User: Fold this.
Amino acid sequence: MYVTRPLSLYRNSPSWLSSPPPEGPNSGILVFEDEEEGAESRWFFGVFKKKDSVKVPPLPQNRILRLTHAADAGEYEYSDSLYALLVPVLNQPLSSNQYYVIDSRGTAKGLACTSSKEDNTSRRSRFFYRIHDAPAQLLDPKNTYQQFQISNYIYCGKPNGFISKSVAPDGVPPELLRRKGWRAYPEPLNNNNSLPTEALGLDAALRARLPDLAFPPNPVVVGKWYCPFIFVRDGAVESQMSNSPYYEMTLQQNWEEIFGCGSLGGGGRVVDFDVSVEREVISIAGQAAGGRNAGDGVMWFGSSGVGLSLAIVERVKWEEERAGFEFGKEKEKKYVKVKRREEFKERGEWRRFGCYVLVERFVLKRMDGSLVLTWEFRHTHQIRTKWE
Assistant:
């Protein structure tokens, strides 16, 4: 899961580029072009706009980038372009300049550019090799053939576009990416007005504070991230690329009543109860998801057609474990018993008693605000009671 940072931060303070992603597995940083960096240069007394190419890494994630290479071929000029979304590789500082390159147009829309292997070549002469580009594929975040290190191409001592190499030792990038001096021109992310906003990750202090036991028990947002669509299965990838290139993930807390009763009168001051609490609840668009099964690096939820990359699943579980939720075979029971005896110790009479459990809930939404998934964890080691 990714936090966001403004591009101007790294332009003004390049030393920040070497800072690691936030704590936890499968973390990353999305760099968003902000107003300070996003202004377009103007010419002819400001009448016309001129789109400048991105000069140096890091490359922005709230823009589609038109990757273009032009070269002279005799009396003609050769030009090749690729429209792509460039997403930083998980678990790497931005200074690594490693990206997943996601095709945003054409028949490969929504698929990840993939390196071929050096041995997948055909010798055409003694001095010339023709490299057969590998087709774009669904992203596997651990596949180093889908990871590219992009750096400035230095010509005459100055940056002159970019050049990339595969993170895989024997990988050969697709033709355009392996050319020297290709340029990156920013284009709008999508056709609607919904754009990603600031996401700072987990607010650890707010999470540890726990919400007030108030009524109604409104959820408190204690964390916010973005998941690029390549980590979410939600229909066809080309539709995701067009309609929701990013998904908002929030972590919410609230108290949920697991037992309540009214006073029967007669001066009774003790309440005994024994209830079963469902430990995890996953819902797709508000409906129970059913079972779970994993395959091809994705956790699928029932027959909904919705799935999460195991990279996201691992991160969600890590966040819950450090808050005290216990996973593991011996703890995988669907329900857990909460058995308690509570005594009313104040003066006077009580009218109602309630027992509440802390619920932490991951909520995944599309860019238009529509709900995809909720994943609830009931922390039965965090119990509150209330007498009225």
User: Anything to note?
Assistant: The chain is about 10% helix and 45% strand. The chain has a mean pLDDT of 90. Residues 2-187 form one domain. The longest strand covers residues 246-262.
